[in-house]
Amino acid sequence: MANSTLDSLQEDGMDDMTQSLVSAERTLETEIAGLSAVRAALKNGLAAPFKQTFELIRNSSGRVIVTGVGKSGHIGTKIAASLASTGTPSFFVHASEASHGDLGMITADDVVLALSWSGETQELASIVTYTRRFKVPLVAVTSREDSALGRASDIVLKLPSVAEACPHGLAPTTSALIQLAIGDALAVALLEGRGFTAQDFRVLHPGGRLGASLKSAKDIMHSGERLPLVSVSTAMSEGIVLMTQRGFGVLGVTDELNRLIGIITDGDLRRHVSANLLEKTAGDIMTRSPKTVPPDALSASILELVNSLSITSVFVIEDGRPVGIVHLHDLLRIGAA
Known about the structure:
By secondary structure, this protein is α/β, with parallel strands linked by helices.
């Protein structure tokens, strides 16, 4: 009897696990269908208002004020953060707080992006009225163009009607996802439209691993007297001493014009071990055409290079001449790895 009960519980447990996976797959399929519907809309009726919104924000001298309540408010907070971090000044104003003084954050130069799936959110009334009174451009992100919000707005980003992943059709799931997706699409379009570069991105993301990965070679390289450089005719008796003193495990070999033409590593020394090693010149044992990076190479790409080549140091070259060297320890120190 005990074994029968245990078997039954195990079977029930397996059924629950299977049902949870079926539910998860159904949710993802529903939300993917929602994203596909937005993509299709961008090739149809959503294209014109999206372009208008893009031009309106790009040409604006103010900020993008994103607003909403509930799940739309949470999504709006993320959209505002994405815009701000990619070169479009933006912040979120909670619709409920707007009528308690936060309307003062909005200027005539700004663009208001209001999120409401139904377009009938009562809390948005004060912001909508304010934008109409002071002629602040208003863009609605809603599923109903004929809603109160839609009718009051200058531009309506009408999102397609989609099925919620919630089996009761009540919890904002697919609808929240496609609001976020159109916000991301707008942020990236503006990023590309403004020519926002990785270096610009770094200015706004100085902290953490992301900030570290956006540092360039010139920010972390060793230069000047720290460079382990010898001429092509330098005797290895001198070269090995310099290699040991500098501590990078490599020597750069330059020609008469100070151009880097080769490199000597610990591996090169092992391959040329012989009784007359110290009598040889750097040119005799160097490896020609070493891998190098420019001063503006990002630390993330340098890390990928040293890992792929199983090396510990790489020279930084400008106009063919070595101006610095980056060691794996430098990348670890700043947190790029």
